[in-house]
Amino acid sequence: MTTALTTSPAAPGVETPDGAYAVRLAHVHKTFGRPGTAAPVLDDISLDVAPGEFVTLLGASGCGKSTLLNLVAGLDRPTAGTIEVPGARPALMFQDHALFPWLTAGRNIELALRLAGVPKAERRAEAERLLELVRLGGAYRKRVHELSGGMRQRVALARSLAQGSNVLLMDEPFAALDAITRDVLHDEITRIWSERKLTVLFVTHNVREAVRLAQRVVLLSSRPGRIAKEWRIDLPQPRRIESAGVADLSIEITEHLRGEIRRHVQQS
Amino acid sequence: MSSSPDTTTLVEDQPQAPADTAADGTTTDSASVEAGLDALETVHAQRIPVGQVLRQKALPPLLGVLLVLALWQTAYSLHLTSSYKLPSPADVWNSLQDLWYQGTLFSIIWTSVWRGLSGFALSVVIGTPIGLVVAQVKPIRAAVGPVLSGLQSLPSVAWVPAAVIWLGINDQAMYAVILLGAVPSIANGLISGVDQVPPLYLRAGKTLGATGLRGARHVLLPAALPGYLAGLKQGWAFSWRSLMAAELIASSPDLGLGLGRYLENQREFSDMSGVLLGILLILFVGVAIDLLFFSPLERRVLRSRGLLVTSR
């Protein structure tokens, strides 16, 4: 099922001409190893993400959701099909913060600014501004090991934003955090997404997280990864993960996800 | 906002607690929960007071040295062997004083230390690019890697005769022996440092746009630094050992009087307390350079990365 790509009312004031996209995947296939011998990981994925849209990719293990994100990030190439990301190279956040431990929090961000071509004179102020944005003003001199897991992910988010891209790819960035911290970070990413008018493609296997965050949830089937179903979510933001609206939709989506997983028992 | 007194205190203690500017209640609530979490989960690294460090780190080795001296003195006092073979600690102290009054003590030490350090510096300059190339270029690694590991296990004193025939009994031969001892261990240190860089850092660097030389400079090399430092430390130990072996074996007035030569001279004079003094000075210099230079550097790098667990 595909839905027309109009931005939902919950979008933070994005006015785009019809058909504009921040990420476009057209008939993307991915096979590791020689084609024909190995089973495809991704099979004919076509997906448009509108500027300013928040999309979560949901799927069980083996659905190739991380592979898909790597392709969009340009870390790997598709076997067939095209991926278009107009503008700057998209930023990618991992499950692990991947901050460099030999640099302070502030210097991590400055390195990203430097690699993005920001002049030296502006880097310090910009890094401080980004730390303020993730509510970590004053953490500039902190070493990575001095920060808690949630703080590290917020610095990692600030570093991703420092790349200057409006497209943010997130690969299960909150999966390793405890529930309370994750909850707080959901509020953060929602706030920053709407403040900065970001386009977010967020990969997760957590249905409630997907529903809590997204304007559109895309369910991928496993082995090979195909788009199984999409849901558009018009609940107003910020949502609460334990709210009835999120819960109801989560139950429905979980049923589909379980159905996708059950298919593999029947096949084998 | 929570009204529990504990929570309030924590939020106020937190210097970076953000001002709750957002008008809507959810965001404000979330921000204060976040600030509370930050305060709760921040680990405050405590510096241990100097006195305690001295007691924990300096006292045990000092006691160990005193124990060895006591055993030595006891063996001497019991006349376990002739005093010609085993002089007392006081005899060795007297030999040291003689050198001091002759004014040659520092020139002997300096001759060897200068040679050792400049040979080591040259080894760093040569070993570092070799290590980088071997670590990064697969065919070269397949060809040269095993040779480097093999060279590391070859005692570099074995090169002394060859170096003397090729270069003559001179400083060049000394440097050649140092290089052959230290270059492989510096290169190998860098190679293992590069191998141990977590692939995630390289991926993160790539998404940030650090590829090629920029990737090496901003990601690969800093990430490999701990392994590289371990290699440097071992490289110094190898430099010093090779140099002492070379000075012991090769004898020529051109070489000046270094520690190795001093040791060999005392053996020729059958001056056992001089021989023991030579051994102790060589040991002292090797340990002192490690303690003054490499260990602090290594500790600093590891601590800044949170890799050094403070013992409690």
UniProtKB/TrEMBL annotation, chain A:
SUPFAM superfamilies in the cross-refs: P-loop containing nucleoside triphosphate hydrolases
Pfam families: ABC_tran
Superkingdom of origin: Bacteria
Listed GO MF terms: ATP binding
Annotated ranges, domain ABC transporter: 23-247
Keyword list, A-Z: ATP-binding, Nucleotide-binding, Transport
Protein name as it appears in the record: NitT/TauT family transport system ATP-binding protein
Origin species: Kitasatospora paracochleata
Automatic annotation (TrEMBL), chain B:
Domain ABC transmembrane type-1: 109-293
Main location: membrane
Transmembrane segments: 58-78, 113-135, 147-167, 173-194, 275-295
Pfam families: BPD_transp_1
Residue stretches in coiled coil: none
Domain of life from the UniProt record: Bacteria
Location relative to the cell: Cell membrane
Comp. bias regions, Low complexity: 13-28
Protein's UniProt keywords contain Transmembrane: yes
Name of the protein this chain belongs to: NitT/TauT family transport system permease protein
